[in-house]
Specification:
The chain is an alpha/beta fold and 444 residues long. It folds into 2 domains: 10-69 and 364-419, Urease, subunit C, domain 1 (Roll), CATH 2.30.40; 71-358, Alpha-Beta Barrel (TIM Barrel), CATH 3.20.20.140. The chain is built from 15 helices and 17 strands. Strands 1, 2, 3, 4, 5, 14, 15, 16 and 17 form a 9-stranded mixed sheet that branches. Strand 1 and strand 2 (27-38) form a beta hairpin. The radius of gyration is 21 Å and the shape is globular. Bound molecules: zinc ion. Zinc ion is lined by residues 75, 77, 224, 259, 311-312.
């Protein structure tokens, strides 16, 4: 934040006199000031009162709001909003094999992915998430959905060794993803990625080919890794842990984003740190499926970048990253019986700046001049957020419903709790119609 210097006097958007979340050596703090946005970037963040000389296409009165970086959801399967609440209270393998995989085989189509991803985008934007890493199938349709939504997204096309939505012949799985990456549209907000589903749904050969594809195309490589205790027996690599197994295949390096990492030993975490891998934790999904508790603090202590994700809607069952921050911090504390563990500042960092670097995005995640203008305004005058002593309350008290305004890449996408980029009523209508077909066949 600057206090005295010559700044541009005309902005696309100017947010007047709000409280601005900033980070310092001791963690986060709030400073009162104004934010000038132009050309998609944060052009000025100033502590002094705005001058009479400043003009803007759009002025937002910031009184009563906290401006903070838009949240970064490092792992979800957007289109799975259709399966929200379809099969609850089940262990992962039963949930996947008896409910999710059959429902996907029957109901996932290009049209389903388009509309259900739009629903996910609307839900996330309304809850203050400006960037998402989405991993699924029919990703051309998901790309269109995110393009239209105004969100920032990293889109990983799925790879498994059995017939999958849009990829009926698994021998074409790598080629399909290569075509997806080659045909990806030019965009300042969107980028493609490879998503190998897991070490237990992809053979060693498929994993190696998928990793090579991501290297050749220079895109991120996502994989579900060490999610459940039984994964080690599923991969059939003897005494090798899932992490050691991937390392033995030459998969692990700094381009890898390993999702979950619940069942990782100290030796596994040393491998992940040594290889420069990044990790995403999804605490609510891990809690709901009773998969376990990821050793997040131990990974952070090894300087591993850990991002925060909701995972898909069917195992959460919402995409509210504020709630996820709360769960993440509290789960670590109660699991270790240590209230000091994983303080709110670490979790806030995971959901913003560290999450962004987890996805390889270096110009979002903090409110600093020159960065891309991805920010949200949180209404802090609600009963739930009164009084507001410190940013800790953004982790332990705020919810997505407290978000009033969302700006992505310098453009207003949510204003006063209303999505400007999409017709949310139309989206919900389409998804309800699809859900009706599931209801008929499942007797729900
Ligand atoms: Zn997942």
């Amino acid at each position: 934040m600057t206090t005295k210097r010559t700044v541009q006097s005309h902005y696309d958007i100017f947010i007047k006199d709000c409280r601005i979340l900033q980070s310092g050596e001791d963690g986060y703090f709030l400073a009162t000031g104004s934010i000038g946005i132009g050309n998609g970037r944060l052009l000025s963040i100033r502590a002094e009162a705005h001058g009479a000389t400043i003009t803007a296409d759009r002025v937002i009165e910031g009184d009563g709001f906290i401006a903070m970086p838009g949240l970064v959801n490092c792992h979800t399967h957007g289109a799975m909003t259709l399966f929200r609440g379809l099969a609850d209270d089940l262990p992962l393998m039963t949930w996947l094999e008896k409910y999710i995989f059959p429902a996907e085989a029957q109901f996932v189509s290009e049209e389903m992915v388009y509309w259900c991803t739009k629903l996910a985008a609307a839900e996330m934007l309304l809850a203050g998430t400006t960037t998402v890493a989405d991993a699924y199938f029919y990703m051309d349709a998901a790309t269109r959905a995110y393009q239209e939504s105004g969100m920032r997204a990293v889109l990983g096309h799925g790879i498994v060794d059995f017939p999958a939505p849009g990829v009926p012949d698994p021998s074409k799985n790598i080629d399909t993803v290569a075509r997806f990456i080659d045909g990806f549209p030019d965009s300042s907000r969107l980028q493609p990625a490879v998503f190998a589903h897991s070490p237990y749904t992809c053979s060693a050969e498929t994993l190696a080919r998928a990793r090579q594809l991501a290297r050749d195309k220079q895109v991120p490589f996502f994989i579900h890794l060490a999610e459940t205790k039984m994964e080690q027996t599923l991969i059939g690599a003897g005494d090798m842990s899932p992490v050691a197994y991937l390392d033995s295949l030459g998969i692990l390096d700094s381009g890898v984003i390993a999702v979950h990492c619940v069942w990782v030993s100290a030796a596994d975490m040393d491998i992940l740190a040594h290889r420069g891998c990044r990790v995403v934790t999804c605490p609510e999904s891990n809690m709901k499926l009773a998969s376990g508790v990821a050793p997040v603090a131990a990974m952070l202590a090894r300087k591993i970048d850990v991002g925060l994700g909701t995972d898909g809607c069917a195992s959460n069952n919402d995409l509210d990253l504020f709630g996820e921050m709360d769960s993440c911090a509290k789960l670590a504390k109660v699991h270790a019986l240590q209230p000091e563990l994983l303080p709110s500042k670490d979790v806030l960092n995971m959901a913003t700046s560290m999450g962004a670097s987890c996805l390889g995005l270096t110009d979002i995640g903090a409110l600093q001049e020159g960065m891309r203008a991805d920010l949200i305004l949180v209404h802090c005058r609600s009963p739930r957020l009164t009084p507001f002593f410190s940013p800790d309350l953004l982790v332990y008290g705020a919810r997505g419903a407290d978000v009033d305004t969302v700006i992505v890449d310098g453009k207003l996408v949510v204003e006063q709790g209303v999505v400007l980029t999409m017709d949310v009523k139309e989206i919900m209508g389409k998804v309800r119609t699809m859900a009706g077909k599931i209801r008929e066949s499942h007797g729900k």
